[in-house]
Structure formats: C-alpha cells, structure tokens
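Attaching the record inline, Q. Sequence:
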Amino acid sequence: MTSTQQPRFDADGIDEAGVIEYLLQNPDFLERHPQLLAELRIPHPCGPAVSLLEHQARVLRERNRILQARLDELLAVARDNDRLADRIHRLTLELMDAQNLEAAVFCLKDELRSNFQCDAVTVKLLGEGDAAVDWVRPNAAELRAFPGLLNDPRPLCGRLHREQLEFLFGDSATAIGSAALVPLADGQVVGLLAVGSYQPDRFHPGMGTVFLRQLGATAGRALRRHLRG
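Structure, as predicted:
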C-alpha cells in the first residue's frame, strides 16, 4: 500500500491491511475453510480469459444460489401448510362441538372469515328448511350456472361469472375479485361453500385444492349430521 492509499474498511470496520496480515500469517486458512472458495471471487492473471477453476467456482456459486432459493421457497410452503393444517384442525373441532345446523353453519362461516382471511363466505344447503339457513332446491334454476358441480364435487377456483357471483354473494358480488367454490360433500353433496376475496389473484385455476377438498369433506360431514331426514 502506498502512502497515498487509504485503508478500506468493511461494514464491521475491519481494516483490509489487518485481513491481509492475518492471511499472510495463516497461509492455510482457505484449506481449513474450503467452503469459502464457493463464495470468493478470485481473478486469474491471464487477462480476459477465464481459468477452468474460476469458471467452476462461478458455476458452483450460481448453482448454490439457485438451490438455496429453492430451499427457501420449499420451507416457506411447508410453514404455510403447517399453519393451514392447524386452522383446518381447529375448524374441525369447532364443527364437532356445534349443537345444531344453524350453529354449524355459523361456525363454518365465522372460522373462515376470522382465521382464513376470507372477505366473503356463503353457505348454500341443498333442500328446504327454516330461514336461519340459506337453502336452495336441488332443481333450482340458479344451479344451472354451475354445470356438473353437484355431480363432480371438486373445488373450483378463479374468477366467476356475474350470474354466479350474484347468486352466491348477493350485494357483495361486484367487490369479489376471485373465489373458491367448494362442494360440501360427505359421500353426497349436501351444499355449496363459496369463499370470496377482493383480490383478483387470491384464487386461481392453477392453485392446489387439497385443503379445499378436505374442508369440503369435513364441513359436509358435520353439516349432514344436523340435516333432517
């Protein structure tokens, strides 16, 4: 270092000259810490040409970056799934404690709004009953807007048509950006669960539906216990 050069410091205030002195006194440092080679940039004195070792180091660093990003993504998904499984478990326990049909429907809607961050929740039960529950006749004309759903009880996710939204969410239909439609099925379909979001990309056709199917089966069985006949 010449007299006109100023020592540089890193974020922790470590003098570069001190680092150089340490490495000179410990020439086997990188041998004892070979993992650092994948992170360090070591230029080669052959001008613009790149040595094989330097090229390999670059490839390893990029591969390590990609693998770390994938691992972080998998861990985030695993944490989200754990939290979702806990919520499904809590909802199941609450439905088991419901003493009648009205209480079970209220519990289902309340839990979804409170713990699943849903902006709108609708439960339509097939059949006829008192006004405390939202009923729809199995042959009702409104159900023609959902062709095949009662015969193939798989969740549908995405943006619904205006007619579907109005039937499910009434006055809130215009605010719903996306929705998940879940058949409440325990062997047979006993109703429909519609979960709406103001966000247009919250529910989309490519999303996984494992938890939605579990939700439909769990809620379907709980509600069926209280249905007449």
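Confidence is low (pLDDT under 50) at residues 1-7. Residues 52-97 form the longest helix (46 residues).

More tomorrow.
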